[in-house]
Task: inverse folding
């Protein structure tokens, strides 16, 4: 039943109501006999409820008035004796008749005697929205004054939820009118209102949709920058093709989880749920809520900034937007109705969206599911595809890909994967952990984060999760590490492997502070196991074969010292390196690495060696020099006569120079986009590099305008 057919039926039922001179009850008996028969002892309502409990989002009524095909089949299977009555009721549109008759009858009553919308909906067995939709249609047809007769002034405080539902229908329309008008007039962007993209999973719809690839580049760029300033958890906007906007007044964790579980947003969609009940920009939820990373709950104020309503030249739109928000907060249906009437605009509908996407069915574009397990499996497939792609572009050993996918599989099976995190974090962490435990030194933190254009935060957070999960660490990572080391050392003794695992389990919890530490523990454990079983191998030899830093090995052995008693039970004796040995290692470190900060030395030595540095300084063996790196003072330890090159410690300089290795010339905006930093800050820094004669600025004529480019000196 389309909109025109609905209007014709409603007008027909209005004529019946006005023409029929008998009492209201006799009218119902005459025109809705099957519905009344089924509703005796609330049989119809009970059947509806029972069907809804058969599965999630079971839809008994299509558009609120007609029985769905699946509901008819279910009735035939379960209530065969009543099937024909249901069919007759459906054929005569008795649900719609009953709603229209009831609204006409109740609208003629005094306020104090009028039934509540919720009571009408409960008796008929439909949602409040169905009653309200019919009421608004009758109002638009100038038949009843639905807003004033059934509005918030005539509803008691005990019915506050009903008020909000009625208000919500109108404020959503007001928001849609305003956003449509603003985006099409000021940006040439189409905003599709109430698109039915969840079919066939759900007959519900979001309030609005924007096709990102069809938006103005300047709008996209500003939207992205504004969002990143508040929430850097979204690794990249490049994966999103659409933005969906949905307004709500209930943003509790349970309500949002329930809302999303009805239609999980595909991974190419950014779902912005705009909460009318929150004041801060973005509402955070625990990862246990499993609200997907591409669904964000934001405030109305933040939405205004995202679509740039805060720009002074759009102040007239911002004012109307503020009025809608204020009226919605106060459940002022009259004011909202006025705002809707004052902002009449041609809305872009589902039909327009189908034409613009050039498809016959939106389900081919939006692969919606309401099953959590199906959505999670899709998420895992996305992670695995991204792992494969990353391995290819970095030209890494296929063994790393295989191990990374095993990590993800174990994490998934043990319910350690959270949809709340962007999938790129899991991709980066699994590939990095796999490469490290397979002793691949080519892949560094910097290479990985630069290639994926992410910060170190999602990578380090997911690595810590893997490190703290025993089934990933011992069953997958340490197993792979030990097999790799055994292959390099040409060892195949199962007893050595068993002892190695025992040693690791003794020290791991207190010693392993990072993935690199965990690998060092594995190598030291193998070294100790080999010597225990008489397969003598020197520290120098094992480090040469495995291409491992001998200083790190020695400091890790030192970290095993507190576990002497436990290790002795396994037949392992640990000796502390003497002070002179520690000092000698520090001297060797500064000789090989050059000047280093205290933090760098402690990281490489794997323990707090500050008092040894002080001793060496007092003895005159090394020097300490203070230098500025950017605006920060840093202390460097160095051998006598050695020079400190501060450029080695300037990470931003490194990033900018690495960009110019791939591109000959770039504008300030392009560089700021790549680095995801403020363009003014970047310009100031580029100017400093120009003063130091690292970069040069050239001006190029492009048509009627000139553009400045940066190139290497």
Result:
């Amino acid at each position: 039943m389309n909109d025109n057919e609905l209007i014709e039926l409603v007008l027909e039922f209005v004529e019946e109501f006005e023409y029929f001179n008998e009492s209201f009850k006799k009218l119902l008996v005459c025109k809705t006999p099957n519905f009344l028969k089924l509703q005796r002892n609330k049989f119809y309502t009970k059947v509806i409820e029972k069907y809804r409990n058969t599965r999630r989002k079971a839809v008994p009524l299509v558009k609120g008035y007609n029985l769905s095909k699946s509901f008819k089949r279910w009735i035939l299977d379960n209530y065969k004796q009543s099937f024909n009555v249901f069919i007759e009721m459906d054929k005569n549109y008795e649900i719609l008749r009953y709603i229209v008759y009831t609204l006409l009858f109740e609208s003629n009553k005094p306020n104090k005697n009028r039934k509540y919308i919720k009571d009408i909906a409960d008796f008929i067995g439909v949602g409040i929205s169905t009653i309200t939709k019919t009421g608004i249609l009758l109002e638009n047809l100038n038949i009843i004054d639905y807003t004033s007769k059934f509005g918030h002034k005539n509803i008691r405080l005990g019915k506050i939820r009903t008020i909000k539902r009625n208000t919500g229908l109108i404020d959503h329309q007001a928001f849609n009118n305003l956003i449509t008008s603003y985006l099409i007039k000021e940006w040439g962007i189409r905003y599709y209102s109430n698109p039915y993209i969840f079919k066939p999973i759900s007959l519900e719809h979001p309030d609005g949709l924007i096709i990102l690839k069809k938006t103005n580049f300047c709008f996209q760029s500003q939207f992205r920058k504004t969002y990143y300033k508040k929430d850097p958890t979204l690794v990249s906007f490049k994966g999103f093709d659409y933005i969906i906007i949905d307004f709500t007044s209930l943003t509790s964790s349970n309500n949002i989880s329930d809302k999303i579980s009805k239609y999980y947003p595909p991974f190419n969609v950014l779902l912005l749920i705009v909460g009318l009940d929150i004041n801060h920009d973005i509402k955070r939820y625990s990862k246990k809520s499993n609200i997907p990373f591409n669904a964000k709950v934001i405030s109305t104020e933040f939405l205004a900034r995202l679509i740039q309503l805060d720009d002074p030249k759009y102040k007239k739109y911002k004012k109307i937007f503020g009025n809608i928000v204020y009226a919605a907060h106060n459940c002022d249906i009259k004011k909202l109705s006025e705002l809707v009437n004052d902002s009449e605009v041609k809305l872009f509908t589902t039909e327009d969206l189908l034409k613009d996407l050039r498809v016959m069915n939106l389900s081919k574009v939006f692969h919606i599911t309401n099953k959590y397990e199906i959505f999670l499996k899709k998420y895992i497939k996305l992670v695995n595809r991204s792992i494969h792609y990353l391995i290819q572009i970095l030209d890494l050993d296929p063994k790393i890909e295989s191990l990374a996918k095993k990590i993800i599989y174990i994490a998934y099976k043990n319910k350690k994967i959270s949809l709340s995190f962007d999938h790129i974090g899991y991709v980066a962490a699994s590939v990095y952990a796999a490469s490290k435990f397979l002793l691949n030194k080519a892949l560094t933190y910097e290479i990985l984060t630069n290639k994926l254009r992410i910060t170190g935060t999602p990578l380090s957070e997911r690595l810590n999760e893997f490190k703290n999960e025993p089934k990933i660490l011992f069953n997958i990572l340490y197993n792979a590490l030990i097999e790799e080391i055994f292959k390099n050392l040409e060892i195949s003794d199962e007893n050595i492997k068993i002892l190695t695992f025992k040693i690791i389990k003794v020290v791991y919890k207190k010693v392993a502070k990072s993935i690199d530490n965990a690998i060092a523990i594995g190598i030291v454990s193998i070294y100790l196991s080999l010597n225990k079983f008489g397969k003598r191998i020197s520290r120098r030899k094992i480090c040469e074969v495995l291409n491992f830093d001998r200083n790190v090995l020695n400091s890790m052995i030192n970290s095993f010292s507190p576990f002497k008693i436990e290790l002795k039970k396994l037949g392992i004796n640990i000796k502390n390196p003497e002070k002179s040995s520690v000092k000698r290692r520090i001297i060797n470190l500064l000789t090989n690495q050059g000047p280093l900060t205290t933090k760098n030395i402690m990281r490489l030595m794997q323990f707090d060696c500050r008092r040894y540095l002080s001793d060496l300084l007092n003895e005159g063996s090394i020097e300490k020099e203070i230098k500025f790196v950017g605006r920060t003072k840093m202390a460097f330890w160095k051998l006598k006569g050695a020079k400190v090159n501060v450029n080695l410690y300037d990470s931003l300089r490194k990033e900018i120079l690495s960009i110019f290795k791939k591109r000959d010339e770039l504008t300030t905006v392009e560089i700021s986009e790549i680095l995801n930093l403020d363009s003014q800050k970047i310009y100031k820094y580029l100017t400093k590099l120009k003063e130091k004669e690292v970069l040069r600025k050239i001006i190029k004529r492009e048509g009627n305008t000139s553009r400045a480019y940066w190139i290497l000196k």
About this structure: Residues 160-186 form the longest helix (27 residues). Residues 3-150 form one domain.
